[in-house]
Fold this protein.
Amino acid sequence: MNDDTLLLRRYVQEGSEEAFAALVQKHVDLVYSAALRRTGGDAYRAADVTQEVFTALARQARQLASHPVLGAWLHATTRNLAVNLMLSDQRRDRRQFVAVELETTQTTATVPQWESLRPVLDAAIDELPEGDRQPVIMRFLERRAFKEI
């Protein structure tokens, strides 16, 4: 039985935080450097991935207590979590790009229409009888609630 197995079993059987801390201390450099490479050198993302890897280790400690090479599992888990994070970031960036394009398209398309409608709307409001004009102005120009009108 190797040191990793002993430490992991102590963590599982006794709930030894010292044993888990020793595992983290022993493997944190391996995990962080692998995460740093996978996240393109982003230290913050690498730290997030490192934390997720050790959280996964704590959750799966019982199953991993008999794993022959814990370092290999940590490396594979680091790779998987880093890839998932980067894919998630790419999907979010794509959605944000599409949202900005849609907003820009809608904004530029509606401005000229509004400019051409403004004089017509003002003229139509001016033609309303006083009793009808006041609630229209209060609701649509002053944006008051119906209760208030």
